[in-house]
Give the backbone structure.
Amino acid sequence: MSHLVLASPLKGWIASLDEAPDAVFAGRMLGDGVAIDPLGGELVAPCDGVVASVHRAGHAVTLRAACGAEILMHVGLETVALGGEGFEVRVREGQSVRAGDGLISFDLDFLAQRAKSLITPVVITNPEAFEIVRRDQDQAVEAGGFLMELRALGGAAASNASDASNEISRAVTVPLMHGIHARPAARIAELAKTFGGETALVVGARRASARSPVGLMALAVRHGDEIVVTASGADAANAVAAIVALIESGMGEGARVLAKAAPAPAPAPIASQPLAPAALPADGVLKGVLAAPGLSIGKAVRLASSDIAVREQGEGQAFEEAALVAALDKVRAKIEANASKENAPGGDKARKAILSAHLAFLDDPELLAQAKSLIAAGKSAGFGWRAAVGGYVEALRALGDRRMAERVDDLIDLERQVLRALNGEDDDAAVLPPGSILLADELLPSQLMGADPGVIAGFATARGGPTSHVAILAAAMGIPALVALGGAALSIADGTALILDADGGSLRVAPDAPALEAAQTQLAQRQARKAAAHAAAHAPAVTKDGTRIEVFANTGSVKDALAAIENGAEGSGLLRTEFLFLDRQTPPDEDEQARQYQAIADALQGRPLIVRTLDVGGDKAAPYLPIPAEENPALGLRGVRVSLWRPHLLKTQLRAILRVLPQGQCKIMVPMIASLDELRAVRAVLEEAKRELGITHVELGVMIETPAAAVTADLIAAEADFLSIGTNDLTQYVLAMDRGNPELAARIDALHPAVLRMISQTCQGAKVHGRWVGVCGGLASDVAATPILLGLGVTELSTTAAIAPEVKARVRDLDLAACQKLAAQALAQTSPQAVRGLVQAFGA
């Protein structure tokens, strides 16, 4: 069959798909078709076929005709939020139907009151195989009346029919904590490209090529959703199995399955238009969200991205396609060259991760296919590229998911880079005056990576989020940054003096002389303290009254160990061994681990090395550890619980640590301890490993990260050789706030009195048995917290390498008796803000 005639599945008015108030349909992201404004409450089959899918909310159905054409019928828009209310599904998946058979009945009056729109798109979801050669439009139609006629493209119909009949599919429940967002979408697409046949993910009535990371993101797959992985071709079974296995592995995104709950209301869409400038507050102080810490003084430099003009009409399909491919190649080469640079601004790890995401988007086959389809229709390469990217940008913004919306910046960034390449423009960095504080609606990653970091004093944006790629870059580059200041940030004139206090979340506009002088004094004091601290970095940290405090550094590689020594750290108080275990298909063997641990020990030149045993689970998943689905992984199988669940991995790691020479340089630390029984179980495995290797002694300590461990510290310290407090997890468990939730970020402060009381109780319990207590969590790197931690009884601090000199300098300014008095006052406060106020007023 080369032509297929589709009858109207509804009584109503046929309109252009452009009239659908939904970017996904109007942008033809799911395929071409028509929209019907219904006048009846029954959806019928437009042709003979098989029901390919029925959405669980009952509002959409996809029919597959014998020739392979796939017809999606989606009753109303945003009707998924109704959770099936108002709909009655009359067919099941896999059922054969004849033209005119009833598919879905619905309450038209109910939908008119509750749905965003009654417009019902009828879309051909495999446009690569079929084109619409004739359609009725802008007229009334009865159910069963002519709607459109399809023609198979070349031999596509036969091959699609064959593919459809041989298609392999498998359902999977998505365990990814944040659904299929940018990172997992890119990994799925990368895997899908290794198979020859067609692969796709199906969510109800929506379908996207598994090779398209942007298309996968636009599916809006959320944690706990059930999806279907499909594939056709000779290796279809292998493709489905591989993609399902990848999704089920958690991909390092955390793995859990939510209990069934009532459908949540549709999220409010995120604004897609630039913010309008707003009036400045009377006091000239704008409040924002911390994106990267620091204090700076400078002058405003407004970055307004000028619109790039593109012509609509092309100069021929061959010419425009060649121009687009050349522009993509140019941008790709530039990104790859940037990624290959060593020690470039932005930090190697952060910069390369962001550039890798850009490459994945740039190579997205769906973006290219949509652009080429518009070129084939007579449009220019620039018009086609902008339209293709723009459709996905609007779709991602409309999801209402903050993480997805922050990836929009990456797509806009790529759109501009490709358009500039098409226009023959060099995307050179702007020439900025020294002390520039950049102001923008939103800043793009390439704008920051392309600027001279030596002249940027900071940046502030009207919109944006603290987990966006540009925020990550700013932190890696050491540039103070604030986001989400609102439209008032766009009213600041170029050249205006500014004080950017990212730590305090404020931007002071046109400060008066006293404010400017105070900020200059504060900044000069910070810089002088930092310079003095680095000059004395290798001197010991001893308080004024002679108390010795050890200042170590947290490490995760040989490079980190070298940085620790360079900054005067006296050892490593935490070696995160996950770097050996993640992003691989099998765990490292004993020899590989021993080599890596020995290399880090050698880099420390004999200084102490405290090795934390494997800490995975929760938000850190390893593909070879199929952790069962959990409703709340932060409280599930993670840390020591994983090690005891797979004791062979624990023993292999312990043996590798014991092999490090000289013996005694390494100490072993167990994460996420909640009871003495867990420590005893680990010690039993350790004793067995010691006997096998002929080792007589090694210190075994624990991390205090749970309230249970803190309140039973006296019991645990009876058998642990030392205690080290992980304040990051301890804080989230004490406050019952997810530290990965950006909405709660400003409220998660380890100087909360409740957390300090847990630290105090830990120190008291350890003192009973003469054990030392350290802090290896983020609070150790907070110089403001140093006097309180010492006052509570902490004698070892393991910080980031860069801050170690300043922590040591702070220790030298302190008197222990005064610290103890301050700590007692801090425990009596009612908020972390009050505690920080005490510290600010504290005199050494």
